[in-house]
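Notes continue from the previous slide.

Worked example: a multi-chain complex. Inputs as given:
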Amino acid sequence: EAGGGDDDDNEGGGGDGGGTIGLLLPEDRTTRYESFDRPFIEGKIGELCPDCTVQYNNASEDANLQKQQFDAMLTDGVDVIILDAVDASTTATWVEEAEAEGVPVVAYDRLAEGPIDAYVSYDNERVGELQGQALLDALGDEAEGSRVVMINGSPTDPNAAQFKSGAESVLEGTAEIVFSQDIDGWDAALANEEMNAAIDSLGADGFDAVYVANDGMGAGVINALEAAGINDVPVGGQDAELAGLQRIVTGVQTFTIYKALQPEAEITAEIAVRLLRGEDFAELTPDSADSPTNDGIPSTLLEPVPVTLDTIEDTVIADEFYAPADICTAEFADACQEAGLG
Amino acid sequence: MSDKLAPDPRLLVRERGLAGYLEDFRRRITGGELGSIPVIVGMIIIAVVFESQTGTFLSPRNISNISVYIAGPGIMAVGIVLVLLLGEIDLSVGSMAGLSAAVWAVLSVSHGVNDLLAIVLAILAGAAVGTLHGFFFAKIGVPAFVVTLAGFLGWSGLQIWVMGDEGTINVPRDSLVRDFNNFYFSDISAAYGLAAVLSLGYLGALLFQERRRERAGLPTRPLSEIILRVGLVAVAAFITAYTLNQHRGLPLALVIFLVILLAADFMIRRTTYGRQIFAVGGNAEAARRAGINVERVRLTVFTLASALAALGGLFYAAQAGGASKSLGSGNLLMNVIAAAVIGGTSLFGGRGWIWSALLGTLVIQSITTGLNLMGMASEIQYMITGAVLLVAVVLDSISRRTQRTAGRT
Amino acid sequence: MSDKLAPDPRLLVRERGLAGYLEDFRRRITGGELGSIPVIVGMIIIAVVFESQTGTFLSPRNISNISVYIAGPGIMAVGIVLVLLLGEIDLSVGSMAGLSAAVWAVLSVSHGVNDLLAIVLAILAGAAVGTLHGFFFAKIGVPAFVVTLAGFLGWSGLQIWVMGDEGTINVPRDSLVRDFNNFYFSDISAAYGLAAVLSLGYLGALLFQERRRERAGLPTRPLSEIILRVGLVAVAAFITAYTLNQHRGLPLALVIFLVILLAADFMIRRTTYGRQIFAVGGNAEAARRAGINVERVRLTVFTLASALAALGGLFYAAQAGGASKSLGSGNLLMNVIAAAVIGGTSLFGGRGWIWSALLGTLVIQSITTGLNLMGMASEIQYMITGAVLLVAVVLDSISRRTQRTAGRT
Amino acid sequence: MTAAPVLALHGVSKRFGAVQALTDVDLEIRPGRVTALVGDNGAGKSTLIKTIAGVHPIDAGSISWKGREVRISKPHDAQELGIATVYQDLALCDNLDVVANLFLGRELRTAHILDQVAMEREARELLDTLSIRIPSVRIPVASLSGGQRQVVAIARALVGSPEVVILDEPTAALGVEQTAQVLDLVERLRDRGLGVILISHNVADVRAVADDVAVLRLGRNNGVFPAAETSGEEIIAAITGATDNAVTRRSLRRDQQGSEAEPEQNTDAEGAGEETR
Amino acid sequence: MTAAPVLALHGVSKRFGAVQALTDVDLEIRPGRVTALVGDNGAGKSTLIKTIAGVHPIDAGSISWKGREVRISKPHDAQELGIATVYQDLALCDNLDVVANLFLGRELRTAHILDQVAMEREARELLDTLSIRIPSVRIPVASLSGGQRQVVAIARALVGSPEVVILDEPTAALGVEQTAQVLDLVERLRDRGLGVILISHNVADVRAVADDVAVLRLGRNNGVFPAAETSGEEIIAAITGATDNAVTRRSLRRDQQGSEAEPEQNTDAEGAGEETR
Ligand SMILES: Nc1ncnc2c1ncn2[C@@H]1O[C@H](COP(=O)(O)OP(=O)(O)OP(=O)(O)O)[C@@H](O)[C@H]1O
Ligand SMILES: Nc1ncnc2c1ncn2[C@@H]1O[C@H](COP(=O)(O)OP(=O)(O)OP(=O)(O)O)[C@@H](O)[C@H]1O
Ligand SMILES: O[C@@H]1[C@@H](O)[C@H](O)OC[C@H]1O
Ligand SMILES: [Mg+2]
Ligand SMILES: [Mg+2]
């Protein structure tokens, strides 16, 4: 189906002409969306379609606000919408509305329900599995029968549940989960308190590894471990945040999960531009995904990558996600030297 | 001389007729009694700025969307206005909205309870929660701020618990809740009819009242004032109706919101119960000494506020497309309270009107929608919303300052 | 007879000595004047329950942790107490804490500004923000609720903007901010020394005051009362010191918090400025007529509250291990306000004391920590926190009710 | 003292914190009689009438209404019995207009809907009889002058049909003309057979309208006097508890004649006797 | 009228919304003289003195202090000039204790630190001179009786050393003894050379202590009379603007003798003349 609404002034149509692509991202407090996803997508669209404009909105984790932003896109007459849903399971009616107006929707990162045209993502379950696996790997021989503390994401964030269940699926059987807590709003200070509670109730020797759902909370967790003088247990998060990478360099954090955002963003951008122009994009979506409402959605599912001290060079630095200079600021210069970075 | 006093010579009496009305109006304006004018002027400025920036702000589609969006927070704001009139606050309305959506969704979707029954039960759950708040506040004497702060935490915990393993429960296609967001009376006579009913009803009410006053020998408003007032209402109503008909017609959400506004307005201005609310908010001890059952007034107002929050929560679920663990968290609470205050209801009790729920919600929603249309970065949205909120009230405050009469201590 | 009146025969005069003191105490308790007893009893119950459930709640390590956790919210609560004494509210403290952490982190870490200077600048930024709030409130007359609600939105937008591309910035190892969470005076003489200074200082202050009163021919407290009061303080101080020394010693965070508490307490009870805060909070118009510069008092209190929030934000960053875009959002604001109220400061102005910041924060933090130790699911945590918050205040409210004297209208 | 008391207090005590405001107070109010309640500042007059009005409960003692013991635990109870009270602090709702204050708690209405027109008309009539000029009956009472507010509070007591009217210093803020009107009003109430309690510091007014004068001193009874047979000096002596007081000294100084200011001694003795009872 | 006025108002007008509370009012206060300001309820007396005290600004007219025109835009300005005011509504902070209220805005202190002991001692002395019993100077004024509160408000005006003292119905809630004390106090202030404005509805008190009587009627001047040479009836006639009023009718009824209540006609005429000027 060719893109472009029928009532908009800058008619998208076919060919190389311009148009408007709407980009809806779910939140603004973690680094990725504002610092990576958005610039990568905007950049790629600009490159592929210089006459295109991108209309951007961020929903600050508010599903209702995102619905209004979605409506605003339709009011503004955008030709294609890229949707990273706050709550992917409630979007069916929105997407139907867009479909009725002839505006195709690409689901980004989270599998939005409803008749979407394409889906590009990392698999959240998979992220969790990798996190669990990375912990077990770090424990090495001691993995069998090890005791793991889990500091999970927000109870109201559907992704958090997927991370958690992915990790559990790997850990269970091998390791024992001795403490598991969800943290409201992914709050690092609360994570710090929960970690202290874990240390207090289990004792400093009462656990062998710490699963922490993301790097943001990792800061608070590691703070608690250090304060208790515990520096020999593996700890890992996700997102490959700069602060997390720096901790990996100094050895206080063991791993993070790197979701190479650039390919994810750029593939999405390209699909969106092709939808705008009414071109075929089958070769961009080799996979297929099923949502509760729709089956056989053309998809690209990318593989997340665990990052440890040994693999920083080949992953985030190789991808130019961060330059060595970003990571190796004055404070970390020595540690970088030792690790052979920068 | 003392049995029938002459009118006070110091009272600057209004001339009869339109001239007198306008003169009186001018005097109020220059004296700083701006009433709701700042908000209305603010609304106009907001509309003009956004329209010039986006070209779509005043489109029928957007106006129609806004009229649907305001229903949920607006209904909740009506409850907050009532609570503010008491001089109290209810911090739990956001959590209550979320809890209500969860209750409805779990009952109706997961347990197969009849949809309408589930809606009623969700609202009753709200009423029960409000009664509980009212009990602790009115009977035990715990400050309402603390009671509802406990509620803010407790009910959102309960919401997450009620939702159980489901992160989100979708609104079924055939549910009335879906209609709260998606149903429009598409026959154009619906919108025009409502506009006509509102205008004529207002006219009738005014004429009836003035007739009675005249018969009782009390001062009356000039006919020209009545015509002017009704005229303004009619123009606003018909323009809105026309615009809505350009899109999909009259939204059910707007109808429900208007009915609630009219009912609440009637209640607080025309019934003894409403009078009691103002009295308790103005001076609770004086109200008690006048024989008013202060505890009952407080208890029932909190019941109403929570019930309205519960209803508002269903509109939220309708809009998002489902009930979730996070529905009602975030800025909802603050937005609803801000709406009531921006609309002109005092935080200190005893002063305000129901229509502030409409005006304030409209201002806040217009800003959000306008910024969405402009595709403003979210942190900039935060800052602009904060700034506009401030400006909206600054105008009012400045005018009140010039007028301030250094009343009693 | 009229030149020197005999003491009023209706005054139930306290006997001299300990017996009189205890009798008076008993009379107050039975009369419902419980003061801070409910909170303290509540604390004891909380401690006993959690200790019996976890076995680690009263461990030196946990006590030490709690004493560090309370510093951040406690310092912010001191600011809120000041604002509440004015009869106002500051909804922006959470956003301000986040903004301050962002300002410090960006200056110090990203721009290489000297660490201490960056800390001072962050706090000054807080003061500037507070002055701005104060300006709109005191000079323009916008209700503080609205001003700080705008701030709540605006400053958190600015926080995100200041953080720029970074979601999180780590606290450097050598930063003073890290010490806010991690530094302990491990020499046991530090904790004991502080306990001794506090106890002796209190004793000295009481003795000095009573001496002056005696000389001026005013009624004095019996020596036994002084000994009892100082004794209680000394016992509490030394037990805490002993416990802290069992773990890592006296935390820097606690020292800073105590210094702020003592300074603020002195300020509001012993200086003209403090007196003015109470007067404005009790009756602003009366204060104005007494020649008090009401605007200045309001402006400076908001300045102080924001500066304290800024400092508190740095403690949060220290605890979280870094500044982030989401620091200070969530329930921080509500917890801080709840702390001040639970501790016994009225929401309605003119009544309260600084120590409510300590007591209230301690209650809330104890609940959170206890539930963390028990590994309670977070939705259950919400519900329990809500319930305990309510119970903590219910006790107080019931006692006040029996005592309520149906004062003036 | 012909009619049986409509309201009788016996042994009433009331404590606020460390202040014993009332100790063992008796008082009887009879229909068709005006009982003045007098006493020094802080004697406990307002506290006493507030216990009757249900503002605060009594600690000890009993209240009987038409011979039957009653419990008055809230203002509504007192109103139900037929007691209307004008408080010293007026107890008006500053945010409400004059009409709303006048009818507060007793609104004229059809079903639950207010009859604004009827209330406004009656309000105007009521205020006219008290010859007060109020700029408009539709402005909030917050913007009225002290005397205007007081008249509104007095007028409130006349809405409804009470059997006992309590007036706590009703003329304190009133002008000469309004004071005269209120005294007329008190007499009209008495003539209609109501029991009236009048608290006042103005001994002349008290002697002019009261039938009985009950004196409170330091929270205790200090005698009840028939107004007609008691001189102003006697009343003042019972109030102040001393014959040598600022009043006598002042008049002594001004009049330069000592004999007139010499009151009788027995009043005080009697009072003192009751006090130590 | 020997000394030059310390305070002079000329052509002062003040409007509240639709009410023209003051129109073109003149007033002169001289040192060592007591000027009584009288008028009916709502005449504008409190509004007038509030403009002097800086509570609210005037719309038109001028205020001169010792011959120099001044702008009084806030209470602090008036205090700086040396004007102390006792307001009709007292303006106390209910949450503060008696001592704190007495010294509010003028705390005794070293540097910025309160000298609680000195303040408490002085407070006790001050209250003793006004012969009021207050249970304790350390209880919040909210729990005081009406008269006790009023005495606290009056005592406040004596803290510091004002040159003009304004008393708005200072004895309204006071007992006979306390009233006498306050009248003594007014005389002491006059004798110390202060200018005193006394607002009162009690014509006897006014005639007893005032040197001049300024009458306000419906927000306008209605004449200034020398107290010594003006009868109570004349003053009342100027206040009510009529010779036939409730007061005269009441005394007529009671005394059954028409001749005494017949006041002179010229006062009212003079008043009316000014009114229409
Ligand atoms: N803040 C205000 N807003 C509106 N009207 C006011 C205000 N203050 C006073 N007025 C009006 O101004 C007039 C004069 O009031 P003012 O208080 O000066 O009277 P007054 O002479 O002191 O009377 P009283 O003897 O009863 O105290 C009154 O009619 C009153 O209603
Ligand atoms: N709510 C209260 N709390 C504490 N003490 C109170 C309270 N109410 C009254 N009192 C005390 O009780 C005593 C009697 O007060 P009350 O108001 O009854 O006096 P009163 O006779 O009406 O005096 P006045 O003539 O001054 O109005 C006073 O000493 C007062 O301080
Ligand atoms: O990447 C994570 C994201 O998926 C989740 O929704 O929020 C927290 C982030 O760390
Ligand atoms: Mg009294
Ligand atoms: Mg007055």
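Summary box: The first helix of chain B runs from residue 17 to 30. Residues 18 and 225 of chain B are 6 Å apart (CA to CA).
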